[in-house]
Structures are given as C-alpha cells and as structure tokens.
Amino acid sequence: MKAIRELGHEAKLIQVTRKVFWIGGQRDFDLDLAFQRCVSFYRALASTIILEERGIPVVNSSEIIYACEDKLLTTARLARSGIPVPETAIAFSREACVEAAEKLGYPVVVKPIYGSWGRMIARALDREGLEEILEFRENMQSPHFRVHYLQRFVNKPGRDIRACYVWGEVPAAIYRVSTRWKTNTALGGRAVKAELSRDQVELVERVGDLMGGGVLGIDLVEEGEKCMALEVNGIPQYRNVAAVTGVDVSRLIVKKTVERFRK
Q: What is the Cα–Cα distance from 230 to 20, expressed in whole angstroms?
C-alpha cells in the first residue's frame, strides 16, 4: 500500500472477509488493476475470479494462482518442458505408493498436492514409516490427501533457494538455511542473502515464464552441481527477502506491474 502511494497511485484496500461479492452484477469496484494478497488460497482464488469477471486484471491471475497451488500441476508442467525437478511419482493406493517408493529409493518425501509453508509434508525413511504416513493421510477428511505425491529426498546442502520473479526479472533471492530437512522460514529456517549463478537465474526465469509470468516466489533446491525447481508460489510473501537483501520488493512489484499494464 505504501509503495503504491509513493509511486503516485491511489490505493484501495479490499478486505475480502468483510465484502460481499455479487456474481453477474454491475461493476462495483473502481479499480484499474488489483494485487492479490490473500494468504488463504481458496479466498484468493475465489476473489480473483470475481474481480476478473468484472474485467479487472489481477496480479496474479486466477489461472496462475491455481496452477502454482497445485503441486501436481506445477511439477507436471515443469517436467514436460524440460525443467529439472526431483523424481516424482503420483499414486492412489498404499500398494502403488510402496511400489513407487521402492523405485525412488528411501527416504521419500510425501507431500499434499495443496498446501504451503512446509505443512503436512512428511519424510518416510523406510516402508514402515511410509505406511504409517499413508494411514494417517487416508483418514484425513479432505479427499486430496488420497492423491499421494511422492518425491525423491534431495540431499541439499542445509539450505534451499527462494527467488523473487517479477515480470521476467529476478531482482532478489535468499537461501533458507536450517539444520532440519525442512528449511521453510515458517518452520524456523534462517533467511540469508543469496547470490545466484547465471544458470540459476536463467532457471528461475524459465520457471516463471512457463507458469505464466507475473509476480512469483520460486523455490529451487541444490544437489551437488545440479539445481532443480521444487515449487512455485503464486501469492508470494517476501518480507524475509526484502529484509536480508535490501531490495524494495513492493516498490519493484508495483512499478513493473503498472509498466506492464500501461503497454
């Protein structure tokens, strides 16, 4: 909000939990464009769809938000386009999961296809551990927990990378450092300024372009000399990135977005 005003634009805050959104009604939002900042995926997706129905461009679009939230869709799209990703399998039964894990090799990581901040992600060290994880997941109420996303455990160097992607550019990135295998800052990981190689920058650019552009948070993981794409965040939080890199990410997002929509 501060960046919008400092750049000479008018900012209007829409608190979606206090607003009634009418479908098919008259245009009741006097906006040239909107920035989607809801933390909740479902609120973000629904409110973005409604604003788009009113003819208001939203950053990011509902298509990008949905594609980035769905880990299966993201990974499939990246792999199909030749982006390096960890070996990944999808299974719909315990028997198929065990078969996939044996081919991937233990340990394996089991992820929900929807979710963020490292929540509900588990590591199975062996078959017994995997079966315990699956028993728990298959008794969850949400049916998407019965779509089992298994990924080879990557021996990363005690860190992963969160890179900011803003309309084709990579202005800043951090290492998320932790002694735990989950390095998310929401789970105690420490943010450290990262200096990406040219190859890593190009990888972030390719991933961002492939997922539709806009404003994204792109997670990479290193393994030896290899760097792979893990996930893409369609509504990125960047407080830690701004704090440790000194880059005014908010100002950059507003400036580049306005430039894009004025063309």
A: 36
Nearest-angstrom CA–CA distance, 122 and 110? 5
- Please tell me the CATH code under which domain 2-67 is placed: 3.40.50.20
Asked whether 144 and 72 are in contact (CB, 8 A), the reply is: no
DSSP state of 158: S
Q: Are 65 and 59 within 8 A, CB to CB?
A: no
- Amino acid at residue number 45: L
**Mean pLDDT to the nearest integer, 82-87:** 98
Query: Is the model's pLDDT at 255 over the cut of 70?
Result: yes
β partners of residue 153: none
Give the pLDDT confidence score for residue 26 in this predicted structure: 63
Domain ranges in the chain with CATH number 3.30.1490.20: 88-152
Phi, psi of 160 (to 5 degrees): -135, -175
Segment 199-215 shows an average pLDDT of 98
List the structure tokens of 140: 């969850």
Pairing mode, strands 58-59 and 34-35: parallel
Domain 88-152 has CATH 3.40.50.300: no
Please compute, for residue 98, the number of CA atoms within 13 A of its CA located in the half-sphere on the CB side.
9
